[in-house]
Design goal:
single chain, mainly alpha, 56% helix, globular
């Protein structure tokens, strides 16, 4: 059976709180600018690759586990923003995690044993969605290139 399900979920991404906190000090502004620069460089690299690469090559690049881990450093970098009264970096990470947990929960609710599932989301979701697939019994991650890490269970 071939079905298409929309599994996106709303979520809180309080980047404005992070920006407001960072803007209180020159060091905070510089730290956030450095993190934003990581994102901008990744987008610029994509734009450069897009001019000559095939769609398949772009998807393989964006789904490379090393790139996914490297891109996650933006989110973990935001954890440095906070103090005894406010934790905007932790709130941003918690909101992003929660949204991805809700997305994956919807997948769990529609997938059946033996199903082969293709999940398409923006690159920012890859780290947590992969995490859920790799750590949830009954699911097995198959890389975009067709390989999969060793695992005893599958969905």
């Amino acid at each position: 059976m071939t079905e298409v399900y929309g599994i996106d979920a709303d979520g809180d991404f309080p980047y404005d709180k992070l920006q407001a906190f960072a803007s209180k000090t020159p060091a905070g502004k510089a730290k956030l600018a450095a993190l934003d620069g990581q994102v901008e460089r990744s987008i610029a690299e994509f734009n450069t690759r897009q001019k000559t690469a095939t769609t398949a090559a772009l998807l393989a690049w964006y789904n490379d586990p090393a790139k996914i881990r490297a891109d996650q450093s933006f989110y973990y970098g935001t954890l440095a923003f906070g103090d005894a009264k406010a934790q905007p970096g932790a709130e941003l990470n918690a909101g992003w995690y929660a949204r991805n947990a809700r997305i994956f929960a919807k997948l769990v609710q529609v997938a059946r044993p033996g199903d082969r599932v293709v999940v398409m989301f923006g690159a920012g979701h890859a780290f947590w969605l992969r995490h859920f697939v790799e750590t949830t019994p009954g699911f097995q991650l198959v890389e975009a290139n067709g390989s999969s890490p060793p695992r005893s269970s599958s969905a």
